[in-house]
Amino acid sequence: MGIVPGKHKLPRSLDASGRIVELPGSGAEIGDADMEGEALLVLPKRADGSIAMDFVLAEGASVAASAWSPVLCATLVRIVGPSGLSPAQLVPSVPKGALVVPNHRYHASAAHLRPARLAATQTVGPDPYVPLQYGLARTGVLEGGPRYAGAGVRVAVLDSAPDTTARELLRVRLLPLEDGPPSEPATHGTLVAGIIAAIENNAFGIAGIAPEAEILAIPVCAPVGDPLGEECRMFDMLRGIDRAWAEGVRLVNLALVGPPDTVLERAMDRLRQLGVLVVAAAGNEGTDRPRYPAAYPSVIGVGALDERGRRWAQSNYGASVGLLAPGVEVLSTIPADRFAFADGTSLAAAHVTGLLAVLLAASDDPEAVRRALFDAGRRAAASSRRGGGAGGNTAVMPRLCDVLPTLGQSCPGKP
After folding, report:
1. Where are the domains of the chain?
2. Less Cβ crowding at N or C end of the chain, within 10 Å?
3. Which residues contact 331 (CB under 8 A, 6 or more apart)?
4. Within a 13 Å sphere around the CA of 173, how many CA atoms are in the beta-carbon half?
């Protein structure tokens, strides 16, 4: 649901620039039904610091895994058992204050490709595909120059694993979860990471919006089914969130969508309380039906605009969307030092994450950054409506230099 293949006419390119290829078409979408025969048991820490363990499992059910969650201040227990039993039937008795919820599935579109391990070069010079990056141009970050490139900001990308051997993503740090999704490179995670963090001025491929930010890629999704399909299980998502918090990130990107969940909502609210901004894709179903985590108030939900500044017809809207950003015919990295055009709210979310990383480098106050982004985004939307753009009341991703003054900063070259 996060990405579909783009239809852009591919330009002729040299191997030295990185080959632009066409993504395969997508087949049937995977639903976001619960994992059959699975449940998540959340056991909060009590006032005396102990964890109540007096829960009862159904016959045939067992503990598959458990982990301590510093974000939720609770122990997470993954329960597996007979497929015909609901979560409440799998764990019929729980301690006071504990929760039993489904092990929901969340999804993003992706393809799993093995990389060709090419040697990195130390070439310095303009990136040849920057003129094809209209989304990068819309952020205005190139006007910020080296002063505003995200330096010092740590960002967690919770997705499938990106290709960290690709020369554009050599600075991305891969942090696999124990017994978690695979760390082999996948298309979706590589596309998202490239928009945010592709190395700038290496005379190869594209440029990232925040090339100096420190990107931590935490695989919480795995390719499954259709070549463009991915599955992200709730247990892994929550563990990824905890890993991100333990690493001291200031910003989390979740380019995935799924059903509402009480525990996930608590985790999102807690991250905001802890001063961590969360950006999520709104989904590509063309509906106003809320999708999560984008629709939670604590999360910045992002829908997709096209190159003309109009909302993409397949982008979700309504409660899931707080901001619209470029997400149609976006050029980014895929495994094996290649590039592709793609559409999707996942790509739009990555643009917003990149811009926020740059803004967080200019301010230590995440709530001030969030307010400044939306204030400037509403002004940008009003201007767009006058020009025949997106319309509606949804904010539009603003340019860097339209946000900086609100944060007490000036754009380079301006007084």
Report:
1. 4-31+108-407, 38-103
2. C
3. 8, 20, 129, 132, 133, 206, 339, 340, 341
4. 12
3-state secondary structure (DSSP) of residue 218 = strand
Q: What are phi and psi of 166, to 5 degrees?
A: -65, 140
Average pLDDT rounded to a whole number, residues 164-193: 95
Residue 107 is predicted with a pLDDT of: 86
Question: Which residues does the annotation mark as catalytic?
Answer: 159, 188, 346
Share of the chain above pLDDT 90, in %: 74
| Contact assessment for residue 3 and residue 346, using Cβ atoms and an 8 Å cutoff | yes
Widest CA span of the chain, in angstroms? Answer: 71
Cis peptide before 131 (omega within 30 of 0): no
| Lookup result for tokens 């039906």 | 289
Structure tokens at 339: 């590039």
CA 243/CA 64 separation, integer angstroms = 20
pLDDT value for 13: 53
Alpha carbon distance 325, 304 (integer Å): 5
Superfamily of domain 4-31+108-407 in the CATH hierarchy? Peptidase S8/S53 domain (3.40.50.200)
Q: How far apart are CA 21 and CA 341, in angstroms?
A: 8
Beta bridge partners of 10: none
Q: Would the CA dihedral through 353, 354, 359, 360 be positive or negative?
A: positive
Three-state DSSP at 305 gives strand
Tell me 299's DSSP state.
Answer: S
- pLDDT, tens digit (0-9, with 9 covering 90-100), for 180-204: 999 999 999 999 999 999 999 999 9
